[in-house]
Design a protein that fits this description.
82% of the residues lie in helices and 0% in strands. The chain has 6 helices and no strands. Residues 1-36, 148-169 are annotated as: Disordered. One of its GO terms (cellular component) is nucleus.
């Protein structure tokens, strides 16, 4: 890039150069004329014309470059001054603003720290309270779960016992049904044998109307007689009254007296007492059936 301060001295040098070129060209022309060489004169003329054109073009470029350099230097110098003024002028105000902001922030920093510490403490206490509540909820849930498990085990145990009880009752009922069927068959068979036989009788060999043979007269009760006499496992064609009437014909004391002579003397009173108990129970059962029929 050309220096602007050297541009005034460029024009005299250029004029001096042109004068030298013109003198040289004149000398060459005169020499050529004197030498009388036509083609050399044409060559020198063409060279001179080209050099003149080159000088003009170079001069134009030099002027444009110098102008551009001046403009750029002026523009940047003015802009730099403006920027310096702009930067220098508000810095005082900016420094004051910064100091004021720093003071405000310095004053508020302690409040912010205290506020942050208070918030942190509150959050910590809240977390501790939440942890205590969750722990208490877990304990309550554990107790409820234990109670639910205990209730479930109790229900399962009750259901198991009920199932076992039902199964036992079913087994007992089946066993009782077998005993009733066998006892009724034995009762009818022994009464038929008693009427046809003349063998001696004892208390244990008397065909009592009971499911299980009695040990003494205390085992002869109305409920025990009802259990065998009213069982649906036998005599389905007879009503309850028919069953009672048939039993009364057998156990009436006057009718049973014909068998007392075959009973040993030491057991006769016991057998006679047992027959009387059976007769009274049958009479009570008949009275009850009549009352139920009357209703």
């Amino acid at each position: 890039m050309l220096n602007v301060h050297q541009s005034p001295s460029a024009k005299p040098d250029e004029r001096h150069h042109r004068q030298q070129r013109s003198a040289k060209h004149t000398k060459l022309t005169s020499d050529t004329t004197t030498a009388d060489v036509p083609w050399q004169q044409m060559t020198q003329t063409y060279t001179w014309v080209m050099e003149e054109e080159f000088i003009k073009i170079n001069h134009k470029r030099t002027c444009k470059t110098e102008d551009w350099v001046r403009q750029q230097q002026y523009f940047f110098s003015v802009k730099e001054d403006q920027c310096d003024k702009t930067r220098t002028r508000p810095r005082k105000h900016r420094r004051g603003d910064c100091e004021e902001v720093a003071y405000i922030f310095g004053v508020d920093a302690e409040d912010w720290k205290r506020q942050e510490e208070r918030v942190r403490r509150l959050m910590h206490e809240r977390e501790k309270a939440r942890a205590r509540i969750q722990e208490e909820l877990r304990r309550i849930e554990t107790r409820f779960q234990q109670k639910r498990d205990a209730d479930r085990r109790a229900r399962e145990e009750a259901q198991r016992r009920a199932t076992e009880k039902q199964a036992k009752e079913k087994r007992d009922r089946a066993r009782l049904d077998r005993l009733i069927v066998e006892a009724w068959a034995t009762y009818e068979k022994e009464w038929a044998a008693l009427a046809a036989s003349s063998e001696p009788l004892t208390f244990s060999r008397v065909p009592w109307p009971l499911i299980l043979p009695p040990r003494d007269t205390n085992d002869i009760t109305r409920d025990a007689i009802v259990a065998l006499l009213f069982s649906p496992l036998h005599s389905q064609h007879q009503t309850r009254k028919d069953r009672i009437r048939s039993a009364q014909l057998r156990w009436h004391p006057d009718r049973f007296r014909r068998f007392l002579g075959r009973v040993a003397e030491q057991e006769r009173a016991t057998v006679e007492e047992g027959v009387g108990v059976v007769a009274r129970c049958l009479n009570e059962m008949m009275e009850k059936e009549k009352k139920m029929k009357a209703r």
